[in-house]
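Homework help board

Subject: predicted structure for assignment chain

Our instructor gave us this sequence and asked us to write out the predicted structure in token form, then describe one feature. I got the tokens but I'm not sure how to describe them. Can anyone check?
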Amino acid sequence: MLFNKPRALEMMERHGLDAVVASFRENVAYLSDVQSFLPGMYRFLDVESFALFARDPGVPPAVVISSEDAAWGSEYDTWIGDVYLFGKKKIFRGAEASEGERRCLALSDKHKSQPRAADALLQAIRDRGLERSCIGLDEKSFRPPTLAGLKEHCPNVKWVEAFEFFRVLRTVKTPEELDRLRVAAEVNERAREDAFAVIREGVVEEDILAAFRESTAKRGAVIEFWNSGAGYRAAFTLLCNGSLFPACRYRMKKGDVFRFDGGSIWNLYHSDTGATAIIGGPTPRQKTCYGAIKAGMDAAMNLLRPGAKASDVYASVVSAVEKSGLPHFGEYSTFCGHGIGIEARDYPIFVPPMKTDNPFLPGSYDIPLEKDMVVNIEVPYRETGVGGFQIEYSFRITATGCELLIPQKRELEIR
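My token output:
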């Protein structure tokens, strides 16, 4: 199970929530294991999905999905047995149905399909006697008419905006999540190695990306982002979704740096890593730059443990880099890492402290580290005339410190 049920129950009790409703696509998948892309593809056409979970163990959870998504409930495992549908049924009942078709039709028949998502969610709330309870809503993905309908027809419910509830809940990973994250990281690391095997004098940047893309695909993942660059482009941020279009035809030459920053998705879970290669040998300045960011990474690793604050880790990275030959680093640095999971950027975010009055956060976004969080620490540096450099690892927070999520080794690779 992806859902961290014990942590959810503890947080709900602490915040006085009788139930929570997920609507953000990643949160619905996290809570229910239903992973349809329809709510993403048709987000502006009233295709929503919800997952409802109550604190009372006698109140069963529920999933609300489009009738077109009924096969997700019948073909793939979800620990939630009660599925509510909305919208027109999409399968005509013709000749005698097969076993698989009967499973899907039975799901469609269990509850009367409601006209709209809001109607189906209201039915699920009423069936559970939650009309006078305190319900946390994952408000970011609720369409305004849906939210208005809920408040109109359940006037005695205390509605609480709870998007940050889910963000904080997801920070501590379950065993299933850790397994998926390890596979995702392994796939990404092997693809990174295959991409680096292509790097040599005369190669064009597009060929490096093509090697990464092919290696990722053959291992069953999809590229999520590419933020890498060769030569003068190593000092740029060129973040794109999947691949660069138009393709980059920059041809690498001796002395060029290649800065890698890329990630993929495997079975809903994200990966991200960073590394650096150079054609020929590094100049003294390039050695200084890489040595400084390596010192920053070492400083972060020494602080990663339960109770440490993300802002303290960030400050230690900046201090170590500045003392190691880049005294201006703090003027150009904005962050040094993030959590990772069913989203590419989970909490915590390793930045200076930022205050907030959100009730689910500790007065700021500076969330203390906990055991079984998975975080990426990344230390990039870019300098015109010299190049761009990056080191990035994924770590699991242990009871006493941290460990690499998968075996990884970073050094300035000479090609």
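Reply (TA_rk): Your tokens look well-formed. For the description, you could write something like this. The CA atoms of residues 227 and 239 lie 4 Å apart. That's the kind of observation they're looking for.
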